[in-house]
């Protein structure tokens, strides 16, 4: 689907600008009969919400979601679900200095070249704030996938700037603001961020997300492969510049004798492929990694031009995330859920419910260490 | 578009199996009035054709394309263009041993889990042979983009297995079977491949592709961003496990003060972003890198199961590429062309011809060293 | 596009239920730079609004539209335009008696069979109230088409129940509640409706809509023809059971020597085809007629079953239109505008702006009497 | 889907020109495991084939279909099915006189205005010959629907020119060249056609098609209703100018007390609605009627212009159908099958297999006289 709609059958149409009256989305194609309330969606929104630690933007957006349609007496009716989030904390004056100039690394220049007109308030349409409706829709997909197929999702930060974060303990992920699966490294991460913030600079991050309990058979080759759609979803997230599935760029130096995951009667013996073969899910965990660039909105002055083409200097004083990657984990999980949801419906359309329900051979990797993906 | 159709407005529908009567595609939505003949398409097919050196599969497929529709007196009519390639060299007996077993790393298992029935001859639908129609369609897109916008494409191998290939001279690329931009390293690559082939093993590769002379303004955020569609296209190519745009995974350890490309009245001062900001083209070169896994069809025996779930050993004796990455360069270029073609039409639909035609400020990077993308 | 989205490039996603918190739509793909405000949309909503005469439902819905996104400083930005209409007059108790029974002629039964769950309040999703967002989106399309191509729309009632309404004077259409192009017949129509209302019954209607100043060349055969999309749009309007283009069912008894519209250097000599040949617009007026069935919500008792399958009687006491056709004219005009808008963008995508701008031969019928369509 | 692709999930992409090397289609999204061979498709093609009586064009097209992909050992594999029909009887010289002029009532003018270039041989892309791939694809849909849901199709001519054809006996339909359900009227039809042919003129026709055994619940409101898609399909067929569902234009003069089909524990008591309520199938027979205009290619001279805009006279001497409606019955049945097929998959995607399989209340009309649709 072109433009602001994500998905072919579970279609999420995103609308809104950072500092307009509201943002939100319409989900069309959701299966009927799913128990759904604000309490299913709000927790996911709260996970990505700004203002929760000193390491993210201090904007205080409540991000309170309202269900305007598609749910009756607590059940989805199969008709479009409109989710609305009113914008509350809009200090547009913070952005006054970017009206006529193009911030380096930002979408200011390209939106202007494409449309000839743009809403500059808070980045307008290109703001990371527009990931909130994606997360809200993802919460609906997650609930259906969990109930229908037992599919669950996890995600964590595996690198912050130059600091690699070894995977130690999944239970630590929700206990620190970085989604780090490693309690011991958190002080180092905090010190790193404090230094960065004082310097008026920003850094990148690497995030890993996984889906567990994925039905085998999802994916629509030749072109609309599961891995292709995952790459589409992830690269479409603000600031992402790289996507890996399974061993990712590690495969370049591998041999075929090492890479091809052997199959045993008890399941796959390894997961170099990351849960996809020929564009179709194997039933193993889906393993995805993304590279997030450093925030472009920094206090350090950079050269740019104004709309008349004259040279100028830009520095940004708004309340920005010094590392957008910090809040990216729940968003990336949501995107993965949206891709799987759409493919679950696509598969059911063509092949029916039967095959998903009756796996004839074991499809799960017997042991699966979350941090050992690159192995 | 789901399944075997690529693109929203320039739509390529791919059909065929490796060892069926024919493969091909239907291109719907091509602008009318484009001069088009077999001579525009065949050279691109010949670039990806097997059997051209000892380092690729020795299957001898002529890959002769026939235009069945959509062209009248040498001009496209705006109606669907059917391109047909008859299969000629089909030694199905080579594949007899894979009828009932699943080759590790192959799509055998997933196609069987998805559809319950599969054409095993030569990999059937999951064969890399099905990239030929993609390349044929890409040739049409390339011609239109070159004529309409002056857009051109280049690609090369930047790593083969463990061997990094420094970019030295673009003129060398077509002169060796590896698409290596470096004449001096070719003997080393040949020796590497000979060793690998004798060992019955395979290796991965990294390919870089670029588009030059890209109009600014292409891309349809929020979701259907140009970079998202590039990632979709590239990750959907057989054996690809990673995609990078611009500095790719290099951004993780970068600072914002370094990453954001400054803009001067003479153009962008660098290209860390790889030609996309906010999902929309900047007018700079598009810079894309992909990681290709080692071929799964190897002579080395590997553990697997048969359709009854019993353990077995699989070794593949067919005539396979020991490195599918060697033939990937022209395919990746074609995919990039298909993405740009579709986005050029999408942009024209919404915003008209005018903006593309009248760039108000310089959008080109003044100097652009192809090999220095990661800088 | 499936489900609740209308259009391929100018995409209108409709959401909401009759008695939920709100209804509305998201328009994605609107060209940027269009001057747009509530004042462009509200008048069209007011034309279809109930409560404006004693011949339509007495529900008093303000239908006040709010623009939530996609417009900045009075101009469309090219990003999704969310239009929201809060529901204000929801007397759900009026509908209590239909919770467990299926009203004959209504969508109650089919929604229940499809989704297993339904919102019964005021017809829920199947209410004619959901045409309001369509009309709102149509107003945007109308403005763009008028500015870009000079295209305008007209519509009127040509039959009410058994009473044919001869076309006399287009100026009369907005001056009576029936959209009748004939002042003299209005008293007869009013008496007819009064009798019907007292009898607790309802009647059908025939509506004619036209587009004037249509660019030639719109339509995407083979399947996505302009006339096919018009039929899709019109038959998709609540209560429509028949669609005609040009001479419609009159062609069955015609001869080819009569039907084929002759072309002269001054333009087409007649318009039996209704402005479409081979699925593509000729540049003549588009001529469309629709048949609207009598309202199913009537006070006359009818046999039905309840959800347990037991026989029951249904009579409906809510405030319903005794002839839904009376308010259909502005809706049908809006649907025609949405179809043309989408095809104008589709055509521009494939063929560019040039052809539309430079008609080489006259494409307009020199004289065009609105009421003489069947001629 | 835009252009030459029909359907959202069961997608038929049509290609070819009347006098090019071949015509055909690619079906993507077909469920796997369906037994399919040429013998399933060829009989339907033979039903629409020209040259079978003196009342249709005497072109002798064998219309022999070839399956190029998507079927392995007699079963569909779930991958694209390419169906190819080589053109054999192409007397292009017959069409020499239309190269530079526009035949009144034909698509010559509009294709030229849209694309600026056109293939004039035999009408090129706008030829009724291009319905052959539609019929071939329809045969696949029919087989699946019959096996999966017991759905069958019927169709007949109900009027030829001025002659109404009373429905008497369905068994007669395949026994005469007109698809007339009435043996007694055939001599009158033959005499009518002979007179018309001698006069060098043509006439229109009305065709009725029905689907029996339709699962309830098919249709995707708000916009993508089942009736809307039927109207799209039918109005998109060459020469169709009107579409009715159920009582069609008869509803205008009906009362609500008459129209709304009562429901009894034994099923619906009548079928004024034609099997659709609120855009969703009821489980009753689908009842559709179409109006087909008289063939535009006639020997009678008509005024037109040439490409330079100068006045000219056009008469057409090719071998044309004097009534295209005669061959339209199998095509209209095929289109209805394609619509139902796509909606069966769309419904299964969103709502699963369960509801279709377990109807809780009777959904079939107890008695159903095919000819009594307008009742």
Tell me the CATH architecture of the domain at 92-351 in chain A: 4-Layer Sandwich
Approximately how much beta-strand content do the residues of chain A carry? 15-25%
Largest interface: C-D, 118 and 118 residues
Shape of chain A: globular
Multimerization state: homotetramer
CATH class of the domain at 92-351 in chain A: Alpha Beta
Can you tell me the CATH topology of the domain at 92-351 in chain A? Answer: Chorismate synthase, AroC fold
Distance between termini of chain A? 35 Å
The helicity of chain A comes to 10-25%
- Find the CATH superfamily of the domain at 92-351 in chain A: Chorismate synthase AroC
Quote the average pLDDT of chain A: 89
Largest sheet of chain A: 5 strands, antiparallel
Task: Give the ordered list of helices and strands of chain A.
Answer: EEEHEEEEHHEEHEHEHEEEEEEEHH
Structural class of chain A: alpha+beta
**CA-atom Rg of chain A in angstroms:** 21 Å
Total DSSP E strands of chain A: 18
Q: How are the strands ordered across the major sheet of chain A? A: 1-2-3-7-4
Pathway (chains A, B, C, D): Metabolic intermediate biosynthesis; chorismate biosynthesis; chorismate from D-erythrose 4-phosphate and phosphoenolpyruvate: step 7/7
Cofactor (chains A, B, C, D): FMNH2
Keywords (chains A, B, C, D): Amino-acid biosynthesis, Aromatic amino acid biosynthesis, FAD, Flavoprotein, FMN, Lyase, NADP
Binding site for FMN (chains A, B, C, D): 125-127, 238-239, 278, 293-297, 319
How would you describe the overall organization of this protein?
The structure is a homotetramer of 375-residue chains. By secondary structure, chain A is of the alpha+beta class. The first copy, chain A, has a domain at 92-351: Chorismate synthase, AroC fold (4-Layer Sandwich), CATH 3.60.150.10. In chain A, 25% of the residues lie in helices and 20% in strands. The first copy, chain A, is built from 8 helices and 18 strands. In chain A, β12 (263-264) and β13 form a beta hairpin. In chain A, α3 (131-149) packs across α7 and α5 packs antiparallel against α7 (328-351). The longest helix of chain A is centred in the C-terminal third of the chain and has 24 residues, at 328-351. The model of chain A is unreliable at 356-375 (pLDDT under 50). Chains A and C meet through β2, β3 and β6 of A and β2, β3 and β6 of C.
């Amino acid at each position: 689907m072109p433009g602001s709609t994500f998905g072919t059958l579970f279609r999420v149409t995103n609308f809104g600008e950072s500092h307009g009256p509201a943002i939100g989305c319409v989900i069309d194609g959701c299966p009927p009969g799913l128990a759904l309330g604000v309490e299913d969606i709000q927790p996911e929104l709260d996970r990505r919400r700004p203002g929760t630690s000193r390491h993210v933007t201090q904007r205080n957006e409540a991000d309170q979601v309202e269900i305007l349609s598609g749910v009756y007496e607590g059940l989805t009716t199969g008709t479009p679900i409109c989710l609305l989030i009113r914008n509350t904390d809009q200090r547009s004056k913070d952005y006054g200095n970017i009206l006529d100039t193009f911030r380096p690394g930002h979408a200011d220049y390209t939106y202007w070249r494409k449309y000839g007109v743009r809403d500059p308030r808070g980045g307008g349409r290109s703001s990371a704030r527009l990931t909130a409706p994606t997360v809200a829709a993802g919460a609906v997909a997650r609930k259906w996938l969990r109930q229908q197929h037992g599919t669950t999702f996890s995600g964590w930060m595996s690198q912050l700037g130059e600091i690699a974060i070894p995977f130690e303990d999944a239970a630590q992920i929700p206990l620190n603001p970085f989604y780090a699966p490693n309690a011991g490294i958190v002080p180092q991460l905090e010190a790193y961020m404090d230094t960065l913030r004082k310097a008026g600079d920003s850094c990148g991050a690497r995030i890993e997300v996984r889906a567990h309990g994925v039905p085998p058979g999802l994916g629509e080759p030749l072109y609309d492969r599961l891995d292709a759609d995952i790459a589409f979803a992830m690269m479409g997230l603000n600031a992402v510049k790289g996507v890996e599935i399974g061993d990712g760029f590690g495969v370049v130096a591998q041999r075929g004798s090492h890479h091809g995951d052997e199959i045993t009667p008890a399941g796959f013996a390894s997961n170099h492929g990351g849960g996809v073969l020929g564009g179709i899910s194997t039933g193993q965990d889906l393993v995805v990694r993304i590279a997030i660039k450093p925030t472009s909105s920094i206090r350090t002055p950079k050269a740019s031009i104004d709309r008349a083409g004259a040279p100028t200097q830009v520095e940004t004083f708004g309340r920005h995330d010094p590392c957008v990657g910090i809040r990216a984990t729940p968003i990336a999980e949501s995107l993965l859920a949206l891709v799987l949801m759409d493919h679950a419906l696509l598969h059911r359309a063509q092949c029916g419910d039967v095959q998903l329900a009756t796996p004839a051979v074991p499809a799960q990797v017997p042991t699966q260490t979350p941090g050992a993906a690159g192995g």
